[in-house]
Fold these 2 entries.
Entry 1:
Amino acid sequence: MTNLGCTVKTCVHNEDKLCCLKEIEVSGKGALNSDMTCCSSFAKEKGAVANVLHEDPERKTDIKCSVENCTYNHHYYCTADVVDITGSKATTSGQTECSTFKQR
């Protein structure tokens, strides 16, 4: 499991810069840099609705990863100790990114 930080304030799963999901997915199959990655688990919060499941934020999260060019991808799971998902004003998953991406 990875320590996951998230600054995507517009995501319904974000609470205090932590994700409330036990597992997320990072996409960007042919990515060459972090701009070409995204958090596929992003879900835009709607108005005052945030963390609708009222789950506690997770410090450690499993991360499925389809970013084949990332050095941390091992059998489609992230092996980085710490991952940061960014995109503070995102309205779609494509406006988020895995800033921890490191090209092989």
Entry 2:
Amino acid sequence: MLERIKGYVRVALRPLAKKFIATNPNILTVLGLLISFISAFFFARDEVMIAGSFLLLSGFFDALDGEVARENKQVTRFGGFLDSVCDRFADAAVIVGAMYGGLTTILSIPGWLIGIMAIVGSFMVSYTRARAEAAGASASVGIGERAVRVMIIVIGAFTNMVNWAILIVAVLSFITVFQRIGHVRKVLK
């Protein structure tokens, strides 16, 4: 289902991407990261609606950079690498901002524990894919890819349920890691 949504997003972004012909997609990648830092700042200040809006804008640039690269035939291995690194920084910054703002505590579960599990899980989703690709397999499977995790946090911000959103991100991330491990085990047997 996520692949179908990605396809719709790409089609919708294609006309806009063509207008960015003179723009290096790596600039859009870094701009998306900087906007994520702004989102993290507002999460840290417990201004969740503003934080969610900036996170949504960051996600827009995260989608636009790849489409600009594809449309303008500027796809490079470095661009993919930079995008992945910036995504990890953005993931961590947003979750740390929410932790700092006291937005990750649920009942008696400490907010730092939920936040750390979300960060570790998010990083492991990326790592399992990268490691699988290095071993000669594809691991683009699982229910908790980055776009899903970002949208969950955006929805959590707009509904003032950031704590539950971060917990869901943690759980989905670990489920995705295990889905990828199972998938790669079958492929590399």
